[in-house]
Hints:
Layout: H1 16-21, H2 41-58, H3 67-92, H4 106-110, H5 119-128, H6 136-155, H7 161-183, H8 189-226, E1 233-235, E2 242-250, E3 256-261, E4 267-268, H9 270-276, E5 299-304, E6 312-316, E7 321-323, E8 326-328, E9 335-337, H10 346-354
Antiparallel strand pairs: 1-2, 2-3, 3-4, 5-6, 6-7, 8-9
Helix pairs in contact: 2-3, 2-8, 3-5, 3-6, 3-7, 6-7, 7-8
The site of one zinc ion has 9 residues, from loops.
Region (Disordered): 1-36
Amino acid sequence: MTLAGEHQESGGATTPAAATEASAQPRRWVRPRSAPPQLDFPLVRNGLDYLASVVEHLDETESMVTHRDVKYAVLHLQAAVEVLLKARLMAEHWSLVFSDPHKATRKTLDEATLSSVSTEQAVTRLQNIAGVPITQKEGKALKNLTEDRNKLQHFGLTAPAPVIEARAGEVLDFLIRFIDDELLPRLGQEEKTEGEASLSKLRGGLASINTFVRERTNRIRGEVTREGAENRTIQCPECEQMALVLGESTGPAGELVRAACRFCAGRWEPEELLAYFLPEGQEEPSGLNACPQCGEWALGWGVRVLSDPMEEVAFCFACSVAFPSVAPCDRCGRPIDATGGTDLCGSCWEDAVEDPSDYGYSEDQW
Ligand SMILES: [Zn+2]
Ligand SMILES: [Zn+2]
Ligand SMILES: [Zn+2]
């Protein structure tokens, strides 16, 4: 993480006190102990400016979103994240913006030559030290964004634009709340008014970005429903949208497609997909993944299917059928019909009847 972005508008002053007191007295960090934590407003303003650029790039009401738009949206969104999280950390204590606070010195901070906190570290410090509520989902969205940015810088755009747009929407959503709850209340009246005005524009922009993501999702759902494919459309492991349609179809070049996500355009072989839905610790499909219908070792667990998206069910990636009433045997993990009122498969049940003391205790059956 660099500090470069922070100085575009702050005139090189990293700390508010240093900026305002520079003319009156020697450049020294003097702040009365009783002063309330103040935010570095140039930092916040800079972050808001980056966000305004993100919204401009992603707003489809103005013009079509191009690859170039997506690229700059990601870069500026990541810059905004870095700057705004740091502004809040600074309010807690300036040493927290150093990757290693033990090595913090005023000199390196003022000269902006420090090795700066990473986004992941910033999130942890905000949660643990500043008590800022950041959910696991939000933390993950921030992490994905950092990855998108890194990939973008090295390889160009690796995920399709709609996916990045949807992810950017999540981060933007988080940042708007973060600015509202964590940053604006720490500003003076005048700065606060300016901040609120920028924020309300951002809210408008976010609404239209979300609308486009939602419209796309709705359009896909409409198509899938018309095709009668809701019960073989699952949540995509790549983009997390309920848009991955299983079942053979023909691609634009006449090629055979066995699984394709309509949201991120990702294509899969059913075997690759199954790997995402094996129980923890299981590396390869085995007899435990035998499909009750086709018998193939292709049954995955914990799959979300569009026809009933709130449930996680067993799904066969060979015959593309969901089995909502199939559960793993409590003891051996083999698929069984869970409507039968038992948690054990036939052979585990027999074992349990033969030796009741054994049930639930023996490890060597596994
Ligand atoms: Zn997808
Ligand atoms: Zn099957
Ligand atoms: Zn069993």
